[in-house]
Design brief:
The protein has 200 residues and is mainly alpha-helical. The protein has helices at residues 2-12, 63-73, 77-84, 97-106, 119-128, 133-141, 163-173, 190-199; strands at 61-62, 87-89, 92-95, 146-147, 177-179, 184-186. The longest helix has 11 residues, at 2-12. The chain is globular and about 55 Å long.
């Protein structure tokens, strides 16, 4: 992590970068953290899947974008919605861009996340079975929601020490949706449901 932050520091806070850089946008799960007591990159704002205003619409494909893609590629919108919708972030319906793009390109609805490295996270978290995590997943597979406290999560996948951490990490990875009204997690769509069924 230290070398990565040094690299970012050289890119974004060096004297040279002031001559050509006005704004940078970095995606990823790893937050920008302080190195010891030194504020190495204090000019970054962090946006997460839970707190994303004002850039929410850039977190995935919006419903209008998906409707336009379905029309362009002659794919059924309602089926696309069943497979890939389910995320509601700041009131905006959000779709997984990778899965939607592959469905359009291949002309086939499938679970395109099952072959990704993040899919291994589901298996890892389920195996840990913090305080009945498997039971909660079964509840969500049946269409239910599960309360989750997201406040203590450190935005670091290497520091998972409770069921709430595991569920919050799965929310950040897109393997669970999050209802901000009742602070609960749920399985957002058919694609993700299939991933959990495979993991179990």
């Amino acid at each position: 992590v230290h070398k990565y932050l040094q690299f970012l520091h050289s890119l974004f806070k060096s004297e040279e970068s002031k001559a050509f850089l006005a704004l940078a946008y970095i995606t990823g799960i790893l937050p920008i953290k302080k190195i010891k007591d030194e504020s190495a990159l204090n000019n970054f704002d962090e946006y997460t899947i839970l707190k994303s205003k004002p850039i929410t619409k850039y977190f995935g494909f919006t419903e209008k974008e998906v409707k336009d893609l379905c029309e362009k590629y002659d794919m059924d919108f309602e089926t696309t919605k069943t497979w890939y919708n389910g995320y509601l972030i700041d009131g905006i319906h959000m779709y997984n861009p990778n899965s939607v793009s592959l469905a359009m390109k291949k002309q086939d609805f499938d679970s395109y996340w099952k072959n990704t490295s993040s899919f291994e996270s589901i298996n890892a978290f389920i195996t840990m079975n913090y305080a009945g995590l498997k039971d909660d997943i079964m509840t969500m597979l049946s269409g239910g929601k599960v309360y989750v406290n997201t406040e203590n999560f450190q935005n670091d996948l290497s520091i998972i020490s409770s069921k709430d951490d595991a569920i919050t990490a799965l929310i950040h990875l897109g393997y669970l949706g999050y209802d901000m009204e009742d602070l609960s997690a749920y399985i957002p769509n058919y694609e993700v449901k299939k991933a959990y069924q495979s993991a179990l």
